[in-house]
Amino acid sequence: TVKVGVLGLQGAVREHIRALEASGAEAVVVKNTEQLVDVDGLIIPGGESTTIRRLIDKYEFMESLREFAASGKPMFGTCAGLILLAKSIEGYKEPHIGVMDIQVERNSFGRQKESFEANIDIVGIADQFPAVFIRAPHIVSAGENVEILAKHNGRIVVAREGQFLGCSFHPELTNDTRFTDYFINMVKIARVY
Ligand code: GLN
C-alpha cells in the first residue's frame, strides 16, 4: 500500500484521512516537515487558504513543501488546497506554494450560494460525481500542460498537471471514493518509477 499524507495545519484533515483509509491507503496527518520524507503523496485540504498559509509560515513548512513538489511526488489540492498550489491567485501579488500552472479566483461561486452540491462529469475520474462546493474557488486560466478535467457552469473546477491534481470542491465529504481512488492511483504509479 501507498502512504499518503494530509497537511494537518487547518481544515478538512480528518475527512481526507477517513477517505484515504476507506480507499485502502495508509494515511498520515502531516504536522511537521520531517514527516514529508516518509509519504509518497500529499493532500492539501480545504479550509481557509489564508489561515493555512499563515500556519505554513509559522511552522516553517514552505521550503519543505516546495522541495516535496520538486521531488515529483504527487500533490492533490482540494478547495483551499487548490488555491495553495496555484501559481497565480486573482487579486494577489504572490502565490502561496505556487507550483501548479493555473490562475484561481477565490470565493467565486457567488454569495447567495455559499455552498451547494452538483453532480459533475470528470474526465478519467468519474461520471456524475457528487461535488460539494463550499465558498469554492475556480480555475480562471490554465497553462498549456494543464489538462482540464471538469467544468461546472462553464468554470474549470478540476485540473491536472502531471504530478499535480486540483479541484474546487470537497471530494472527501462524500462517501463516493472515485476521486480519492484516482489520486491514490497517481501516487502508486509515481512510486513505481
Ligand atoms: N474560501 C476558502 C479560501 O479562500 C476556501 C474554502 C474551502 O476550502 N472550502 O481559502
From TrEMBL:
Annotated positions binding L-glutamine = 47-49, 106, 134-135
Q: Which catalysed reactions does the entry list for this protein? A: aldehydo-D-ribose 5-phosphate + D-glyceraldehyde 3-phosphate + L-glutamine = pyridoxal 5'-phosphate + L-glutamate + phosphate + 3 H2O + H(+); L-glutamine + H2O = L-glutamate + NH4(+)
Q: Which GO terms describe its cellular component?
A: cytosol; glutaminase complex
Does this entry carry the keyword Transferase?
no
Q: In which pathway does it act?
A: Cofactor biosynthesis; pyridoxal 5'-phosphate biosynthesis
Please indicate which superkingdom the organism of origin belongs to. Bacteria
Report the coiled-coil segments: none
* A Pfam family the protein falls into: SNO
Q: What is its EC number?
A: 4.3.3.6, 3.5.1.2
The GO terms describing molecular function are: glutaminase activity; pyridoxal 5'-phosphate synthase (glutamine hydrolysing) activity
- In this protein, the active site sits at 79, 170, 172
Q: Is the keyword Lyase assigned to this protein?
A: yes
Q: Name one GO biological process term.
A: pyridoxine metabolic process
Q: Which UniProt keywords apply?
A: Glutamine amidotransferase, Hydrolase, Lyase, Pyridoxal phosphate
Instruction: Briefly state the protein's biological role.
Output: Catalyzes the hydrolysis of glutamine to glutamate and ammonia as part of the biosynthesis of pyridoxal 5'-phosphate. The resulting ammonia molecule is channeled to the active site of PdxS.
Subunit notes for this chain?
In the presence of PdxS, forms a dodecamer of heterodimers. Only shows activity in the heterodimer.
Name under which the protein is recorded: Pyridoxal 5'-phosphate synthase subunit PdxT
Q: Which organism is it from?
A: Niallia taxi
Q: What taxonomic lineage is listed for the species of origin?
A: Bacteria, Bacillati, Bacillota, Bacilli, Bacillales
Gene from which this protein is expressed:
pdxT
